[in-house]
Amino acid sequence: MKTHLVTGGAGFIGSHLCDKLLADGHAVIAIDDFSLGTYENLIEAIKHEHFKFLEGDVANSSFWHQLAKDCPTNSIDVIWHMAANSDISAGVKDSTVDLHRTFLTTFHTLEAAKALGVKHFALASTSAVYGDLQSVLSEDSAPLNPISNYGAMKLASEAAATAKTSTDLDKLWIFRFPNVVGPRSTHGVIHDFVRKLNSTPRRLEVLGDGTQCKPYLHVIELLDAMMHTVRNSNEKINRFLIGPLGDKGTTVRYIADLVIRLYGTNAEIVYGNGNRGWVGDVPTFTYSTDKIYSLGWKPKLTSNQTIDKAVGEIVAELKSPVVALR
Ligand SMILES: NC(=O)c1ccc[n+]([C@@H]2O[C@H](COP(=O)([O-])OP(=O)(O)OC[C@H]3O[C@@H](n4cnc5c(N)ncnc54)[C@H](O)[C@@H]3O)[C@@H](O)[C@H]2O)c1
């Protein structure tokens, strides 16, 4: 049994990660400030005897000083840094949101790793570090010119983490996620569509013209890929893209049509203009997953199959039971 610390542990991916680590026989300490995560996401984990939850802001050094007093040095094996700002519109309105929640959470968690003697660190990064780069994206693609502050703060996080491998960390994993979907989501296109239909069941407003086409990966496949990579990669810095099967993404139009069908409404879909849903949106990108394939991991689902599964799950989870369709 190892001890894993998960920042952002009450969030969408972080809470699934806690459940997976516990199911694999490990002890887990999860931290979250509940800015976006919820207590409900931890409902399974808190039943477990080897699970401990701490509420706190991981961008605040005094939180970590307190934790270091209660936590013996070298007692944590791996830190999984999942905390970040996933509310894109909040970050667009106010750049300090991503500075604080996306970069400073990383900076202070890295400092905490040093103070706690943790040598293994896994960082959740993103396709947003590539900006508008028009090629099949790989781990070595360049130049990295993010077009959103969120992407910039993730790239800065990657840089801060890689620098620590020359001083404090023995092993670093940087995972650049595509769009991750599944139950317990706190944001994202399917989540937004279902929420919108809960308030206006006859009309679905879509950001952009719906032609945006991106790869979607199911959260369960993401966890499987991360566990496999941590077990099997041996470099000091291990950077991996994780994507669905095949190189075709899924359009927003496909998602909107499916959400409406599974929601059980014939809502009118109202598309916006242009192929960018918001400032910093990258309308199309394709991931090369050759590197993770060569490590022996392969996803089971294509992007469309992932969406088919996740739309069913999220509609079942979020559809309001009192919505009036007639
Ligand atoms: N979901 C995706 O499609 C996706 C894609 C690319 C990258 N990522 C990255 O994966 C990670 C997890 O994302 P998610 O989708 O689960 O988002 P999420 O918002 O559900 O989870 C992030 C969690 O971090 C917590 N948090 C934020 N600031 C904090 C702070 N200062 N102190 C403590 N907790 C804090 C939030 O309350 C939330 O529970 C993030 O780093 C995100 O940037 C996600």
Structure, explained:
α1 (12-23) links the parallel β1 (3-7) and β2. The mean pLDDT is 94. This protein has helices spanning 12-23, 61-70, 88-93, 95-116, 149-164, 189-199, 219-232, 252-263, 290-294, 303-318; strands at residues 3-7, 27-32, 51-55, 78-81, 120-126, 136-137, 171-177, 179-181, 203-206, 213-214, 216-218, 237-241, 250-251, 268-271, 286-287. The protein is of the alpha/beta class and 326 residues long. α8 (252-263) runs parallel beside α10 (303-318). The protein has 10 helices and 15 strands. The strands form 5 sheets. It has a 7-stranded parallel β-sheet with strand order 3-2-1-4-5-7-12, with helices on both faces. The termini are far apart. The longest helix has 22 residues, at 95-116. The radius of gyration is 19 Å and the shape is globular. Bound molecules: nicotinamide-adenine-dinucleotide.
